[in-house]
């Protein structure tokens, strides 16, 4: 027995996980978004025990995570590119865009923005 979820009642499950020497047991409440390991409540992301119960129910684990883990929230967080300031010639404006005094810094900033963009897509 590696992972086993057993329906208790409503949206509550008992999840067992066999460790190397003993069996760990957790109670997962899908409606309240809590697990007895307390990770789910702390991080607002499904813990492995909750995922086991969610998969047993036939749902998608992503539906039980907070919206700030969504791709839209990630894009909103990193929407502004912050350029490194090598010397006093470069000033970072309030909108996050670097006011570069030479073309090399502007090109490096554009390359960094593209790398961030492609990192999001991967």
Structural commentary:
By secondary structure, the chain is of the alpha+beta class. The chain folds into two domains: 3-66, no CATH class; 70-121, no CATH class. It contains four helices and six strands. The strands form two sheets. It has a four-stranded antiparallel beta sheet. Strand 2 (12-18) and strand 3 form a beta hairpin. The longest helix has 19 residues, at 103-121. The radius of gyration is 22 Å and the shape is elongated. The relative contact order is 0.10. The model is unreliable at 94-101 (pLDDT under 50).
What's the order of the H and E elements? EEEEHHHEEH
Indicate the multimeric state. single chain
Q: State the helix count.
A: 4
- Could you say which overall geometry the principal axes of the C-alpha atoms support? elongated
Low-confidence stretches: 94-101
Termini Cα gap: 35 Å
How are the SSEs ordered, and which strands pair?
Elements: E1 3-9, E2 12-18, E3 23-29, E4 34-35, H1 39-43, H2 48-57, H3 71-77, E5 91-92, E6 98-99, H4 103-121
Antiparallel strand pairs: 1-2, 2-3, 3-4, 5-6
